[in-house]
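User: Predict the complex with N-(5'-phosphopyridoxyl)-D-alanine.
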Amino acid sequence: MSRTVYVNDSFLPEENATVSIFDRGFLFADGVYEVTAVLDSKLVDFAGHVTRLERSLNELKMELPISSEELLNVHRELIKRNNLEEGAIYLQITRGAADRDFAFPKDTKQTIVLFTQAKPLSAPKSGIRIISAPDIRWGRRDIKTVQLLAPSLTKMIAKAEGKDDAWMVEDGFVTEGTSCNAYIVTKEGKIITRDLSTSILHGITRAAILKLAAEMDMEIEERAFTIKEAQQAAEAFVTAATAFVNPVIEIDGVELSGGAPGPVVTRLSQLYIEESRKAAM
Ligand code: PDD
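Assistant: Here is the predicted structure with N-(5'-phosphopyridoxyl)-D-alanine placed in the model:
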């Protein structure tokens, strides 16, 4: 069935939606994106995603071409027109179309595209098996740009080995998953995840999970960890808007928590879904 998508002020059937071949998103990956989860046909953490979007745009000397109220309306309209109950809304904003030039063009009309993708997010998860791989991305991973070839290639290395995903490693330490933040849980129940910097994306789900964990009086340590430390952990997991909390049950061939989701991850996952259902708008 054809989806209704949003392109530059219009709602259109997906087959009629077009973007110029001169769009700088296509030519230079000169654009940013956001992914907001949809649960019970409502948006999860919309304000957090808009704040990060504005920051990403600002870092690339761009502006939000639409007010945040209008953006919320477009998201809601897409949910309605596509009868989306659970899944995600993808949003991309580029610098727009211009003659090809490495220098930023002046006064281009930015391109804005939004589309929906249905996906079960709240169903119980059996856990993923991951491998480690070198982090070959650029140095500003805190900006959510559309240049996703490096993580895509890295994901394909995992797939070629029959695994689900990869944790990327730089200077001996895990940065994050190809499209998710990475965590381990120590035998004492402490949650460890990489501290915020330009090395990783500042996950909106990450912020929510750390807040939840703190409210549950769980100990949290934001620091880098190695694959070896992760393999010796009691549990491991990843978070993302399109995965919520997903248990990691194998790292480079070493099984964790008996090859099944452990108690801490299971509890965090349930709580996150409960809280998201309550706060979704
Ligand atoms: N990816 N790290 C990376 C590299 C990511 O691409 C993502 C999200 C995250 C988690 O961020 P958040 O919790 O805000 O979704 C961390 C999205 C879902 C994607 O590219 O599809």
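The pocket of N-(5'-phosphopyridoxyl)-D-alanine is lined by residues 35, 176, 179-181, 201, 203-206, 239-242 (CB under 6 Å).
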